Amino acid sequence: MNSQTSDTIHTDLTIIGSGMTGMAAALFAVNRGISTTLIGQHSAMNFASGLMDLMGVHPSGREWDDPWKALDQVRKDLPDHPLAKVGNPDIENAMGEILGFLNDQALPYHRAAHKNVNVITSVGTVKKTYTVSETMWNGVVALEKKSPTLLVDLDGMKLFSARQIASSLKERWPDLRHQTIEFPGAETLEELHPEHVARSLDLSANRVKLANRIKPFIKDAAYIGFPALLGMYRSREAVAELEQLLERPVFEIPTPPVSVPGIRLQETFISGLGKNPLFRTLSTMVTRVKTGAGFTITTGGSNTPATIRSKAVLLATGRFLGKGLVASRQGIQESLLDLPVMQPETREEWHREDLFSPQGHPVNRAGIRTDKSFRPLGRASEEPVKNLYVAGSILAGSDWMRMKCGSAVAIATAFAAIKAIEKANK
Amino acid sequence: MLKTENTCLKTKMHVLIKPKASVIILATLIFFYGGTVETDVLIIGGGATGTGIARDLALRGITSLLVEKGDINAGASGGNHGLLHSGARYVANDGESARECMEEGKILKQTAPHCIDDCGGLFVAVRGDDENYVGDFPGFCARSGLSATPVSIEQALEAEPLLSKKIIAAFGVRDGAIDPFMLSLENIAHAKALGSKLLCHTEVVSFEKDNHCITRVWLENVHTRQRFSVEARQVINAAGAWAGKVDALAGAATEIIYSMGTLLVTQSRMTEGVINRLRPPSNADILVPGGTVSILGTTSMRVDDPDLIKPTVAETDLIVSQGAQMIPSLETTRYIRAYSGVRPLVSQGKGDDRAVSRGFVLLDHQDTGLDNFATITGGKLTTFRLMAEKTADLVGARLGNTTPCKTRTEPLPSTLEGKWTEPGIAPRAWMQKPAGKTDRILCECEMISESTVDTIADELEKNGQAPDLLNIGKRSRLGKGPCQGAFCSTRVMAHMYNNGRLSGPDGVDELKAFLSERWKGQQPIFWGDQLIQAELTEAMHCGLFDLELETPNPDKPEHNEQTDEAKGDSHE
Which of B523, B572, B570, B567 is closest to B69 using CA atoms? Predict the structure, then answer.
């Protein structure tokens, strides 16, 4: 990692926001020789589930098996959707570059060639997604074949009941059994925290003890499923060893936050990017962005204030949870540069009466509008800011939660924005 | 006018079930056989009044069956401030209500102290308010015999630091906060202990009449649509805002004005005591502490149908901006819920609905030629006991029972049934668990543990009600903290599956029903932090779990509880 002691940091690109979009953009940038400073604190990436969605559901409610066909249809029907601005080849290239990087960093993800896959969730629903952490892949296969499978949960883990999953899915998957195991060494603990379990399973000795407790319950099971906590930094190794000990394929099931696969992803990005001398990260908050000939960015918060001089800025600050957008009674604002936000005319229209309304809530399609190169559209009277780009969930027009396209919006728009930055600076 | 000898005392012998059977057996028999239930008194409506009547009658030795189409306090009894009025609000134009409130407040503080936070209150005027009203106020209070102590601006600001620096006058009054859910749950619990019965989710569909009597009342379970009938010697309509609809079924014309009021719940308690705006009653001029939160309201808007009410964005904005004139930080604080209630006002002429007397009306229906029917409506939470007393006096006399009312002095017993709605009870129970005993916290916002959830579920089952998330939520603070149920709902589901109370695919429907219920009270307050929480909830339950794509289980009867869903509950 690049460390500079002078007061002012000079960089080609500053990425504001350390979530999936910011991390992906940083990877694309340094891979293209662009010196990059990533600034962000408290990203929502540790909420990531270990699944990556491409495109799953059309606003009409139709569910797609082929995400690429879904993208074609979205381009036709929803020209304002951010992914309508990126072609399928670029989306494929972007996904490929990210998955290649994760593979190199020993956090591989797995996908089917041209179709969405089904995974079971911790509340016993079946979710369609595009790519899953390799540690979850056997679950996709077991579900497809409805193989006899044992689901294991750990006594004291409050957000995950194997019995709930097995019972909820009984009709769909009759050969699903469940067993609660006391985690070795945690017998006296009242509560079990997923992160602690995950870290302890980075050690081989603990895997052996856990496997010994499970063995008597395997019986006819051809697969064994666990909550997603099989190792923190050595999850691939943990799963492989458990498979060897249990003599069965093993898989993880995504859990609600705190999500161990999300933490793995975040740590992997930071450590992998950190090996590149073009990359620098500041775990702090941006307090001010001054435009003019280049950008002057001031950071603050709890850390020592720093000043960054940057040729280009990519805003990847996310939505409300990421604090890129701020909602008051009067309306929605962009938090850093006061960029114009496309939004419903009145607050009455933000949400529908029914939380689960199939049409989704209009507020989730509010956001920043951009041109085809992901430069924000200014107000009518203003000159657009040069070398300013926006990517990720802050963009207008995508309801990622309902269309199941969150990862693709993050990764593909980051890719397109970095390509535009590369081109503009040549 | 009142006849003690009543032709309706003769009941026919269509008895399949003895009144002493437990509610569960009762419900089961009704379910399998249909049939007829016999009772001395049938009470329609499970709000503060209906449950109060059940207790009052039971203390006189008269048992009753109370039927409620939603759940306890589903109407105005749940949709209010939880204010125990000193009466000062009514001194200017309704002296009788003022005196009634004062009297009843004193009685309730004596007999039901566990339901009351005797926090006191202030009336404050801010710059720009009508100074004539401010000047007249002490005289108005004196006229009704109320205590109103002048308080200096400095003293007021010291007692309530969040008050506006622009206040120009302040008076101390004997307001209090009352937990309406605990109150009704305790009243019905006491009535049940004395032999009365409760059936929730049971709606009146028709009356059979013969010879100046209601001979039979047909009822329907709102979930199963199973019908059965009740033969009662006396029938009491305590349906509140729905009293007109019930009277119409019996052929009596009672015109009810529906005045909707909306209230907002803040995330934390803003003041020690009740804060009232010292001006003629208007929008958003009362802030009442409710345990760990405060409740701000209300508005007054006439609506056509008590079943079709919901808080709006416009009302919310009005309440926040008006409330902020008294307490400026109400503009910036986080709100966790909005809800509406309907005041049932009995039509007595024209004018602002607030000017209509807030007194209650007891109709004996002699004029419509029904000798065993009474309707009690109007009034307010503070005077529920008096309303129950007057009704029980009438019905007791008709039944030839001369035992006088006991609720003026008899303490309301404190049972387990009401206690979990109180903030702080669940954490205290958890702290007191024996060392070494496992009892995990399931709701981290409100510190509700596994054993608390189990206790509430047991009580629900004992009462013949489903121990599901929605019902547990109504009897505790589950889902009422900052996370609004996003996390605790999944933890409680997992726990319910693990202990075998739940099995099969119904959990997803339950989860959706619970989250939908929490959502309904929040739409108008989605901005700032609350919108961030909403985004997280949706990311988790739609983004990850795909709950919006799950179709309801067709084998399960549809959950269709308009009344509960539309109004939410005040008890935050």
Answer: B567
CB < 8 Å to B502, chain A: 164, 167
- For B310, nearest residue in chain A (alpha carbons): A353
Alpha helices in A8-148 (DSSP H): 20-31, 67-77, 88-104, 134-145
Q: Which two tokens stand for residue B541?
A: 């339950």
pLDDT above 90 covers a percentage of chain A that reads: 84
DSSP state of A46: G
- What are the residue ranges in chain B where pLDDT is below 50? 1-7, 9-22, 32-33, 349-351, 555-572
> Is residue A193 within 8 Å of residue A154, measured between CB atoms?
no
Q: Which of A125, A191, A329 sits opposite B550 (nearest CB)?
A: A125
Read off the tokens for B111.
């007999």
B529: which chain A residues are within 8 Å (Cβ-Cβ)?
none
Spatial distance between the Cα atoms of B67 and B246, rounded to a whole number of angstroms: 12
Residue located via tokens 């620098």: A280
Domains, chain A:
8-105+264-424 (3.50.50.60), 122-253 (3.40.50)
The Cβ-side half-sphere exposure at A186, using a 13 Å CA radius, reads 22
Residue A136 one-letter amino acid: M
Tens digit of each residue's pLDDT (9 = 90 or more) over A2-39: 444 447 899 999 999 999 999 999 999 999 999 999 99
pLDDT at B34: 56
ipTM: 0.95
Residues sharing a CB contact under 8 Å with residue A127, sequence separation 6 or more, in sequence order: A51, A118, A119, A120, A121, B544, B545, B546
Query: pLDDT digits over B376-425, tens only?
Result: 999 999 999 999 999 999 999 999 999 999 999 999 998 766 566 665 66
Q: Give the count of alpha carbons within 13 A of A352, CB side only.
A: 13
Q: CB-based contacts of A294: which residues, under 8 Å, 6+ apart?
A: A309, A310, A311, A387
**Contact criterion met (CB < 8 Å) for B487 and A256:** yes
Strand B121-126 and strand B167-173: the pairing is antiparallel
Chain B from 251 to 310: CB within 8 A of any A CB: 310
Query: What are the distances in angstroms from CA A23 to CA A110, A278, B52, B379?
Result: 20, 14, 62, 61
Taking the CA of residue B203 and the nearest CA in chain A, the distance in Å comes to: 25
In chain B the domains, ranked by start, together with CATH numbers, are: 21-75+181-255+359-398 (3.50.50.60), 116-177+261-346 (3.30.9.10), 419-567 (no CATH)
Give the distance from residue B286's alpha carbon to the nearest chain A alpha carbon, in angstroms.
Answer: 21
Q: Which residue has the tokens 């504001």?
A: A16
Cβ-Cβ contacts under 8 Å for B345 (sequence gap 6 or more):
B256, B257, B258, B259, B353, B356, B357, B358, B378
Tokens of B469: 């998330």
B228 contacts B34 by C-beta, under 8 angstroms? yes
- Euclidean distance between CA atoms A343 and A332, whole angstroms: 7
Single-letter code of the amino acid located at B315: E
What Cα–Cα distance (Å) separates residue A408 from each residue in A53, A55, A302, A330, A393?
6, 7, 33, 31, 10
Three-class SS string for A335-397? CCCCCCCECCCCHHHCCCCCCCCCCCCHHHHCEECECCCCCECCCCCCCCCCCEEECCCCECC
